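P.,

For your records, the input lines for the assembly:
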Amino acid sequence: MKAKEIVLVAIFIFTINLVAAQQAPGYLGKRLVLSYTPKFMLSAFNPNKNGEQGFTTFNYAHRFSLDFAANRKISYGVAFEMYSTGMEPEFTLYKHHPASDHSSSWGSDYPESYYYEGYGRLNVKGVSLYRYKYKKGIAPLGKHSILGVKLLYASMDFSDLEFSNTYYIGSGSHQKDYYNLSSSETSVMQLGFVWGYGVNRIVADKVTLRLGVESTLFPLKLFSMFQSVEDDDYYLNYGETSLSKAKELFQKQAIKRMAQVEAFNITLGIGFLAY
Amino acid sequence: MRIRLFFSLLISISSVSAQDMSNFEILKSKGDVPNEFNKSSALKVKEDIKAVSKEQNRTDQKAEKLFALESNYLIDGMLESGMVLYNDELSSYVSRVADEVLKVNKELRSNLRFYVLKSQAVNAFATDRGTIFITIGLLAQIENEAQLAFVLSHEIVHFQNKHAKTGFVENKRIEQGRGEYKRTRWNKEISKNKYSKELELEADIEGVKIYLDTKYSLKEVSSVFNVLQYAHLPIEDIAFDSTYFNNGFFVLPENLNKKEIKAIQAIDDEDDESHTHPNINKRRAVMSDELEGKSNEGRLDFIVSEKDFYRIQSLARFELSYLYTKDRMYGEAIYNSYVLLKKSPNNEFLKINIAYSLYALSKYKNEGKIHSVLTDYDDVEGESQRVYYLFDEMDKKTLNTLAVKYLWELKSTIKENTFLDAVAKNAVKELLLESGARKSDYRKKYPENKDGNIAVETDDGEESKYDKIVKIKDDSEGYLKYAFVDLFKNEEFADLMSKYEKEYVKEAKGVKTDKEERVEHKKLEKKGQALGIEKIVMVAPDYKKYDLGKKVITQHEYSEYKKEDFVKLNQFCAEKRGIELEILSNTYFESTDQYNDISLLTDWMDERFDHKNVRILPYCKMYTDELATKYNTKYFGWTGMYAIHAQKNIQWGYLALACIYYGIGIPIGIYQVLTPENHTFYYTYVANVTNYNLLMAKEDYVKIKDNKDLMKSYVYDSYNQIKSSKKPSKKLSEELSEESK
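Structure tokens returned:
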């Protein structure tokens, strides 16, 4: 059987199952909720996608989800989400020119250096699986705790970011070259764990409203949000690896940025009780 | 001397009172539902509030309005509970006596309605709206019509002088320390009691005036106080003979028979400072002043009907056995039934009553909770003390054996009584699974001597250490060994004994651990029940909303309105889930049948809840079995929702927190400070009223408002669990398998 057919059969079985199980439990027998949830993430210490920063500016994320009440107390959900956030390079990478290798001080021997000016933008897309536990209410209504896993893919948009490489060309002169980094070269993927708390309401037996707070932690990079991505190793680096190191630094910074953005979100969703 | 006279009089009158009670059935209301049962409480309150005089000061006006509110809802709560009897033999008789008492004041009579309250307490009380209640306990204790007439006269004065309201207003003055109570801040309760006593004496004095206008005997004015003074005693004080339970080889040990009993205390002048009523001595003295010089000539003990009086007295006394048993006062039930059996020795109702009480006592004894259903014998005076002593001292095995023996012997004489049948079988199960008795403890044959006659086993020489131990056990429990010899001839009994003996061994092996029980509970919480019930009757759905920011009357009005919504929501959800639902509403009684059914079912549920975790067939099952047939379902439910809404006091701590966590904390702080406090409690209980099983006990408590979506979610969930039958629940499976057996 081809993959396409398998997917069709799976969708068919899933739909039949939903309809057959419509009578229980859920809200008046309805168990499936399609929803759109914008997320608000404070950009207090980092710029948003427009480069704005402060206590009154936010990053916005869009989440589309499908939640299913498996029993009275538990709902499972699958969601797709995306957002963009600003990313200001916080490092400058130097590379010593071979001509200055033996100088006791830098003096007139300028190192080769990379500069980054302006703002980059981090585009994040992710899929997540959730488990909502309704301790007091009956799924999908009421207060609930959230647990989930999230796979995020982040790529950088450098269109507004200027890269330059200034290096010594002798006779006291320097040359500055401009070049580009492609976003695919600096993309990064991360697995995070989500936890949170929310409350659902249902209006007119059809529309669901959700308010909640969520936090995503990246266990392997647990402290990445607090660390500087600068590394002395790069400062003293030789050879032709500077550009690839720059990519690594961008990736590190992307993870740090995601960790900061995902650390605390306020979610406000609207949905539709489908079946 | 006075006591002896009182009891000899009581016994002599009782001998006249033998009535044919062989077909006694518990009391039920009859005829049309009185209007006041179906009139909205809020409307009654509004009418009463409108009538509050504006000439008095505002604080008193406020107190009167509060009284209108509290009293109406209290009385209506009582009417709706099914505890009240109307148009039945008892209340009709009381009304006829009231007609006689107010023969000369027909206008006053037209403002009064008399109901009998299904309570074992000896009491009567009047409300300001003209409803007068007389309890079953009082009707069971009074000795003649004249005594009833005086009680009614007394209560009529309470109504006439609006004592309930004046007492309430005065109590408010005392609480607030107003007027003459400015200096009585430290003894408010005493002041309240003092005022209450003044009202009681006023009712006595003016009651006598009403009474004097009748032809009833003046002697009874004094003797009615005997009834009040000894209200804590049973209907009669006759010797309880514990040999009642003996037969053949089954002879209860002598040490279970209390040698000396506590004498009845004849104290009529006790310190009444903390009582709401003056002591009997004072009341008698006041009465004798009022009656001084009045002639008793031509005055009678009975005017309406002597025969009817003794009939209603007997009915009340029989009903008392029912009330004691359903209220789990098993010692009282046994003694009351025992007393009545002296006059009606073959009465099946009384025997079943005793049998059930023995069964219940054995259950509670096995659970180690006997004292929750058996009065401490040290607190009892008179002959009935022996009953409490007997069952308190009796060990588990003996009590269980006695219960089984009594039940099965009764079962053999009363055929086709499904209740008795079920209880008798359950008692055998209890005996072998819970009391520690083994089947081998009971002999199938009496000991025989050489002539073939029954003889007691004798010693036959040398005994080992173990023989001696066995012999000691045999001797101490010797009277139990031959308890079932005759019953073993009954195949059904013998089979049950074998069955539960095997089950005991099996159960001992398969005891569930705490962890297993916790896992099961979690699973149940997650999945819910799947009872697979097609039809259910919901009894008296209830809804109460307390919005503390609003006036109390508005809260009640809103609750009444929301209750209708709640009933409709139940119907909507049941229909959506495909369940046949019948609602027995206590807001509007369509018929007296409905009222009586609610009364029985409420009794069943109250009793079931009182039993808590003791797995016992409720006594009320005897009557609810019929309802299962009538409504074509065994499954009855009780559901309700209570919501409280209140404004919070500003939580300065949250505000401070909001400031500290500026940006993140402030929305939480604002939310915490500004949002009101809400509490919502929802419950649904589903039971099979033909047995013990509480199939569903769903209780949800959340700290959110009783929004429509929340209500729908909870109510639908209940019906979903009731209807779902993917996997029959363990409880239902067990029940079905029990039934099939």
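Two observations worth noting. Chain A has one domain: 3-273. Confidence is low (pLDDT under 50) at residues 19-23, 96-110, 232-241 of chain A.

Regards
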